[in-house]
Design goal:
It is a single chain. By secondary structure, the protein is of the alpha+beta class. It has a domain of about 50 residues. It contains 3 helices and 7 strands; from the N terminus they run ββαααβββββ. It has a 5-stranded antiparallel β-sheet, with helices on one face. A two-stranded antiparallel sheet has the order 1-2. The longest helix has 26 residues. It starts with 5 loop residues before the first strand and ends with a strand.
């Protein structure tokens, strides 16, 4: 029986057998499986980029712990005083974190970056599994910038290694806001 490659949609985490699809049939996101010899994959499209709605929903709500805590503390306990205050603080923090990740993906300028560290974050755990943090560097106007992608619960460390090149999208007016393109699964 021949070995079959599985393609992972980085936007909604769907899986497909090695096909010639260019877009995910579940969310419409691009399937980045045709890598070039340097391992980068195709350059991100010019801004503004349209992100799949399911991906945006996951980043803003369903995959954002602070937003979920904020919603749970605010809506059911609206009649109390303390819980909504805590909830609104958490909700706003989750919303800011989500926007800081989504804004570069939608509006950012693309450049080549390099992975400088891949590590497990043992301070957190979900179902007994600790997330992976990928730290990367990229250059903007002669200055080296450092960014990271955290809370990756998939086995990214099996497909990426220190020294790998990747696409980074960043905000030209605030390079501290950056993301990896396409998002790491």
């Amino acid at each position: 029986m021949p070995f079959e490659t599985i393609i992972h949609c980085t936007w909604c985490k769907s899986q497909f057998p090695d096909t010639k699809l260019s877009n995910c049939s579940n969310c419409g996101g691009t399937l980045e499986y045709s890598f070039t010899s340097d391992g980068l994959g195709p350059e991100p499209p010019n801004a503004p980029r349209l992100l799949p709605p399911k991906f945006k929903r996951r980043i803003k709500y369903t995959g954002n712990v602070m937003t979920l805590i904020g919603i749970i503390f605010t809506i059911p306990f609206f009649w109390t005083i303390l819980f909504p205050i805590i909830g609104i603080f958490c909700w706003r923090r989750g919303n800011k974190t989500a926007n800081d990740e989504l804004l570069p993906l939608e509006q950012g300028k693309a450049t080549v970056g390099e992975i400088i560290d891949i590590r497990k974050d043992f301070t957190q755990s979900l179902n007994g599994q600790s997330p992976t943090v990928v730290e990367f560097k990229f250059e903007v106007g002669g200055n080296e910038m450092i960014g990271n992608v955290g809370n990756i619960y998939d086995s990214v460390h099996l497909t990426k290694k220190v020294g790998d090149k990747l696409w980074v999208v960043y905000m030209p007016n605030d390079p501290e806001k950056s993301s990896v393109w396409p998002p790491l699964v």
